[in-house]
Amino acid sequence: MPIVSHTSLPTFADLRARGEQILPLDEALHQDIRELHVGLLNMMPDAALRVTEQQYMRLLGSANQIVQIYVHPFTVPGLTRSPEAQAYIDAYYEPFAQLRAEGLDALIVSGANVSNPELSAEPFWEPLAEVMEWAIHDVTSILCSCLATHALVQHFHGVNRRRLLSKRWGVYAHRAVRPDHPLMRGTNTRFDVPHSRWNEITSAQLREAGIQALIESTAGDFHLGVSADGLRMVYMQGHPEYDTTSLLKEYKREVHRYLAGELPAIPPYPENYLSPRAARVAHDYLEAALAARDAGAPTPAFPEAELAGQLDNTWTDTGKAVFNNWLGLVYRLTDLRRGVPFMRDIDPDDPLGLRTQ
Hints:
This protein has twelve helices and eleven strands. By secondary structure, the chain is of the alpha/beta class.
């Protein structure tokens, strides 16, 4: 589904420069092709704000090329922003009030960084709840990522996430536990998904709340789940949108924090991510950096390019398939008019017809 560059958002030009198909607005307006309007509620911190835009737009743009996709980034109050990030948001993001008035066909909600153990104490909790109370009635499908999944399962079902003993950080083997579900068409039965989090919601908690788990890790925790109707809420706990180097950049930040004295211990490698050779390179770098610190010498440059050349991506194809299925279902079920969730002959309580099969 071609992404339409309908605003001056710099991400459109960035993606075009990287070889992604981006359709200019004047071309889009001359094509008799149906539009889908997808909101991107971006709650990520400043350093990841634009990267998150690109990651989700690549997944959206890799879907079937039948429909024109208009992506509408926006955010909510209660998130700490630098003056530079706020200026970017003011210049390129759309007000929620405008999107609520014009309507959306689908909505993606990103993760976020939090500072409170209780999510409801976060300053963004009430603004996020306002968006979701609108979207659950007026948007065909909502896809949530990581922290957003934890927040919305708590908001809608009263299910609280649990603190892990250590950070779940790395690339983990998963399997489809509902391969017959329409969101799982064309996916492998076993595949990898990146995770990066300190908390979790389990498959058992999902089932108690009436949520179906579609993808689980071999350790038992879920990656993908859907509401009882099969589509209105799509919950992800992992990160299929991650680039090949996303975890590497996170590891680099953690190493620099340790070298700066901000962390008490050497950060572990992301699990199942670095090859033995890459792990050796990372180990040798850390030894050299510590020796330089002890000698009062400058810290050597982190070998990011060398490590990046030794990484494998084992998750993007499945992520693309799930997003393709998701957008295909939204396209098939939603009304031709923007902001009208379902066609007249669609049962909103069973849009996929799963209960009548």
